[in-house]
Design goal:
The chain is built from 14 helices and no strands. The chain is mainly α.
Length: about 350
């Protein structure tokens, strides 16, 4: 691992913010007003709980992208898996009344299965038809979102309101609040536990070694007896299951219903992908890069209110981060080719 790789998680955000500052100055915006407003919008009084609540789907969707990425598979269908998992959880809670605890567990299991199935479809399409996973997952995402929208607007719609949403879920299926917070639910420790399990499995198990070997060199891993196709399918399905579970966790929390577009509109998938790319292949950094980009995303509204800067500027920062990380990766690859043997240290 060279200097470029080690410094990318720090250099990319700094460079992106520097470029954003130049854009602000060129358009007559005072950065000394905009950036403090961004911070207050994310962690100021009354906003921190919302930011932590937003961190849950960002980190969860980062796992959904990072898990298959370790085998070299690019899961770009997070929005479809997220929405389908959310509406599946709502349908399970509304159509299958269960006692407490089971009324929460069952919808979450259904949500994970729905998201996992949508992602898994890409594996046989690649194995039998040779369609790249990056294409399949991307193309399957809009139908997944559309199906969730249809279910929320028609079969599961709340009657008499004209809104594209389901009725409020039964009380037994509501995730309880943590403490006095209106936003924080057990979704936070669930996603934290999933992250810890992933980090352990990736670094401390034989399966994790096989997954890393597959991502580093598929042919070498296949020669070593690793079931490359099987691992790819498993990691894709696992990533999709995590995305579906995240959708279920959000729906079982406030406002305790599936609202059409509410899961995909905030851009959790895009933010999560940026966070994983910013971590530059180091899983232990994913929770921290996810937190950084969540602060940027949540703080954008405060920046718009107080400084008059469009909140979409935070999406520009995320886009610049991805571009800069890609440029650094390209520079690293070119540097490696110039070394004897062209081997990256």
């Amino acid at each position: 691992m060279n200097l470029t790789t080690r410094t990318a998680p720090l250099l990319a955000p700094v460079a992106a913010l520097a470029l954003t500052t130049l854009v602000m100055l060129a358009t007559g915006v005072d950065p000394f007003l905009a950036y403090p407003a961004l911070v207050r919008g994310a962690v100021g009084e009354g906003n921190l709980e919302y930011t932590v609540a937003a961190y849950v789907p960002v980190l969860g969707m980062a796992l959904a992208f990072a898990i298959p990425l370790r085998t070299g598979e690019l899961n770009l269908g997070g929005d479809g898996q997220l929405a389908l998992g959310g509406v599946a959880a709502a349908a399970a809670a509304l159509l299958v009344p269960l006692p407490p605890v089971l009324a929460v567990v069952f919808p979450l299991v259904v949500a994970a299965l729905a998201g996992g199935l949508l992602a898994w479809i890409a594996a046989p399409l690649r194995a039998r038809l040779g369609i790249p996973v990056i294409v399949t997952t991307l193309l399957l995402s809009p139908p997944g979102v559309a199906l969730a929208s249809y279910l929320a607007r028609f079969p599961l719609a709340e009657r008499g309101t004209g809104l594209a949403q389901t009725p409020v879920l039964p009380d037994a299926s509501h995730l309880p609040a943590l403490g006095e917070s209106g936003y924080l639910t057990p979704a936070l420790p669930v996603v934290a536990l999933l992250t810890a399990l992933w980090l352990y499995a990736d670094a401390g198990t034989a399966l994790g070694y096989e997954i890393r070997a597959t991502g580093a060199n598929r042919e070498f891993a296949r020669y070593g007896g690793v079931g490359v196709a099987r691992l790819g399918a498993v990691t894709l399905a696992t990533g999709g299951a995590v995305a579906g579970l995240v959708g279920g966790l959000v729906v079982l929390g406030p406002p305790y219903r599936f609202v059409d577009g509410a899961l995909v509109a905030p851009g959790y998938t895009f933010t999560a992908i940026a966070a994983v790319l910013l971590a530059t292949g180091r899983p232990a950094l994913v929770p921290f890069t996810s937190a950084l980009l969540t602060v940027l995303q949540a703080g954008g509204q405060g920046m718009e209110r107080e400084a008059g800067v469009p909140s979409q500027l935070t999406q520009v920062v995320q886009g610049l981060i991805i571009v800069i990380v890609a440029v650094l990766a390209l520079a690293r690859r070119r540097t490696a080719k110039k070394r004897p043997g062209g081997v990256t240290p």
